Amino acid sequence: MIAASGIVLAGGRSSRFGSDKLVARVDGERLLDRAVTALAGLVTEIVVVSEPGSTRSLPGGVSVPVRIVEDPEPFGGPLVGLLAGVETAREPLVLVAGGDMPSIVPDVLRLMLVRLAANDDRQAVVLAARGRRVPLPLAVRTGAATHAARRLLGGGERRLRAVLEDLSTLTLEEGEWRPLDPAGDTLRDVDLPADLGG
Alpha-carbon distance 77 to 87, whole Å? Predict the structure, then answer.
């Protein structure tokens, strides 16, 4: 196993959803639990980055330790959440997913992690879909992500995509990862209640 931490970004407002979407259920499981489960077999720990004062419970029955870290800036955006996560991650590599991604295929995450570990000259790995980089899921070197996120936030940046532009990022084209996930389920996220149905 490659030494890696998992980060689940779970600090958004869910404003378009209308309520806390991470407790909404898909096939009987909370969105948050599904994201954690997708990471659990690939990492030694999982950090759930949540808004301050969240009352969500952590998922049970996970094979690795799961802990909550609070966003230092409530609803500051995914870049703030990424920094909060990587600052506390214990491993040199990190897999990052959104808490609203209910159908991540672990084999795709494994491929991202393997490619990052095998390319010392790269600091991050992302997937491409329809010719564009997708910011999540993300595999990243902990130290490089920490420095980049601090610098970007200090300059007023809020976009997670800015980290991909700042770091030496390897992009996995669809021909590399789609054989593991023909339907592209890994990229699915939930913004609206209608997205829960698939």
Answer: 16
Q: What pLDDT digit, counting tens, does each position of 26-65 carry?
A: 777 888 888 999 999 999 999 999 877 776 777 777 889 9
CA atoms within 13 A on the CB side of 36: 25
Which of 168, 116, 8, 119 shows the shortest CA–CA distance to 108? Answer: 116
3-class secondary structure for the chain?
CCCEEEEEEECCCCCCCCCCHHHCEECCEEHHHHHHHHHHCCCCEEEEEECCCCCCCCCCCCCCCEEEEECCCCCCCHHHHHHHHHHHCCCCEEEEEECCCCCCCHHHHHHHHHHHHHCCCCCEEEEEECCEEEEEEEEEEHHHHHHHHHHHHHCCCCCCHHHHHHCCEEEECHHHHHHHCCCCHHHCCCCCHHHHHC
Radius of gyration for the chain, computed over Cα atoms and rounded to the nearest angstrom: 15
Q: Look at residue 15 and tell me whether its pLDDT is greater than 70.
A: no
CB 129 within 8 A of CB 175: no
Q: Which residues lie below 8 Å from residue 16, measured CB to CB, with a gap of 6+?
A: 191, 192
**What is the distance between the alpha carbons of residues 167 and 177, in angstroms, rounded to a whole number?**
21
Is the distance from CB of 86 to CB of 140 less than 8 angstroms?
yes
